[in-house]
Amino acid sequence: MPERVKRFFATEETAAIIRVYQPMLLHGLVQTERYARAVISTNSSLSPIDVERLVRARMARKERLTSDDPPTVHLVVEEHVLRACIGGVEVMREQLEHLADLARRGVVELRVVPTSLGAHPCIGAPLFLVLTPEGGRRPNLVYVETLTDGVFVDEPDRIARYEATMSELLPLALSPSESLSLLGTVIAKL
Fold first, then answer.
1. Residue 133, number of CB atoms within 10 A of its CB
2. Does the first or last residue of the chain, that is N or C, have fewer Cβ atoms within 10 Å of its Cβ?
3. Domain 3-189: which CATH class?
4. What tens digit of pLDDT does each residue of 156-171 get?
5. Please, what's the b/e burial string for 87-125 (b: 16 or more CB within 10 A of its CB; e: otherwise)?
């Protein structure tokens, strides 16, 4: 496993607050097994054994959400992420119902960026996470994911830009209750 991946897992595992902007699909921490498999298996360079290994690793990561000391997770997704039919209708329905359950139970705070918003502060941005360490003993860290890699941002001025961008986006996104209502509408139409 590459060092950057080990570092990411270790940082995510100990983060007290995880703020995620997800422009293309649902984040690994909230994925169901079948959704994760559908996403991971699109990587043609992976063997079926590698796909299953990565699915198991992803499922193990999400166990922290239901642990005795779960992180606070703020998940901001583009509306089209909810409407994409990844893995087929049944897989997507299961995934969205799981997400709705997590949001209803307060495991994650879901905020949907409506398609009608058009241009917004994160338009064109890749997946990024702002990770706040437990106890705030260290400064926040940002992780940006690309097609082939992931990059940690630890320079204070660059971290501040990601934090500001997320702060600018939140008032434009649907509220948690509006997001859950939209999610219910999308599920009903599947």
1. 15
2. N
3. alpha beta
4. 999 999 999 999 999 9
5. beeebbbbbbebbbebbeeebbbbbbbbeeeeebbbeee
